[in-house]
Amino acid sequence: MAAPLTGWTELASATWPEVPESPLVLVPTGSTEQHGPHLPFHTDSVVARAVATGVAETLPGQVVVAPTIAFGASGEHADFPGTISIGHDALHALLVETVRSLDLWAGRVVFVNGHGGNVVTVRRVVAEMRAEGHDVDWAPCVLPGGDAHAGLTETSLMLHLRPGDVRIDLAEPGESAPLEEILPLMTRSGVRAVSPNGILGDPTGASAAQGREFLATMVDGVVRRLATTAPPPVTTIP
């Protein structure tokens, strides 16, 4: 029988004897949704996985990175062809059963979330699973001061992570109003009602160098969050 791998383990490419005992399991949660005319549908999933991998490389002990959950709650992008949204109910069921299954061998489960539309459900699942007695948490992939969607932040990240997937010649400004100003209309009518090209921000000036720095900041934020002794404020189910 093979010995468990040291450091972090990529679950998808491992075999069962290589899975360490009671590891921390990071589950990247993303989406398959439009990201303007210049970024691919898997942008959120790519970022979530990169952050989870960066965290796994940083933390001590045995860490497993699970396969990315690539479908999320993306109904606000449904007016753009290509978007696949499974909605909050299906996402809830998927995440609940993921935790219950992982709890058979994992020590702790943490969702590393790369899509804002998943947050309500992720928080709800964490609260419910804690009530069942599972050791579960979540952390967002956020950049303080970053723009909302397909702008400078995500374009820079993708230029660093997947430059071949970026159609930089098609990058153009989108809606740059503060999110709190456009959120009511976007909630009622979707992203296309506030931004015909699907961009919330301005990707102009994005670069791989900025993306490398943004990723490091995101990874550091998740590491610091997981190092705190106090649990996140998820005891109230929305």
TrEMBL record:
Q: What SUPFAM superfamilies does the record point to?
A: Creatininase
Which cofactor is recorded for it?
Zn(2+)
Gene3D superfamilies to which the protein is assigned, alphabetical: Creatininase
The positions making up the signal sequence are none
- Where does the sequence pass through the membrane? none
* Pfam families registered for this protein in UniProt: Creatininase
Highest taxon above the source species: Bacteria
Q: Does the keyword Zinc apply?
A: yes
- Which controlled-vocabulary keywords does the entry list? Hydrolase, Metal-binding, Zinc
Family that this chain belongs to:
Belongs to the creatininase superfamily.
**Stored NCBIfam families:** mycofact_creat
Cross-referenced PANTHER family, in alphabetical order? 2-AMINO-5-FORMYLAMINO-6-RIBOSYLAMINOPYRIMIDIN-4(3H)-ONE 5'-MONOPHOSPHATE DEFORMYLASE (PTHR35005:SF1), 3-DEHYDRO-SCYLLO-INOSOSE HYDROLASE (PTHR35005)
Protein's name in the database: Mycofactocin system creatinine amidohydrolase family protein MftE
